[in-house]
Design goal:
Layout: H1 8-13, E1 33-40, E2 46-53, H2 55-62, E3 70-77, H3 85-98
Antiparallel strand pairs: 1-2, 2-3
Length: 106
């Protein structure tokens, strides 16, 4: 799972966003996710720990009918590109470094 996030593509199309863009069959796009940390794996590659919120819960939360409920998940990938915007990227990288997930990050 090389990409999890809630980028412009996912926000624009919501639940109608295709799971796999045609040019990248192994790419999975998920909306309503919040990345906690990225960790380097001893076996190589990375583990991305994130929270996944359901679309139904998101809508209920926005309508004031429910509190935010998430499922904690982990995805692994050989390569991870963090592109969460100006503040989001820094926050993810700092949390990852502080938790020891990316020891080589300066």
């Amino acid at each position: 799972l090389p990409h999890t996030g809630c980028g412009q593509f996912s926000r624009r199309f919501g639940q109608d966003a295709p799971d796999h863009p045609p040019d990248y069959p192994d790419l999975e796009i998920r909306a309503l996710c919040r990345v906690d940390v990225v960790r380097a794996r001893e076996s190589g590659g990375y583990a991305v720990e994130f929270e996944q919120q359901s679309l139904e819960n998101y809508r209920d939360q926005e309508a004031g009918k429910a509190r935010r409920k998430v499922e904690r998940m982990t995805a692994t990938a050989d390569i991870v590109v963090v592109a969460a915007g100006t503040l989001g990227t820094n926050e993810i990288l700092l949390r990852s470094r502080m938790s020891g997930g990316l020891p080589g990050l300066s």
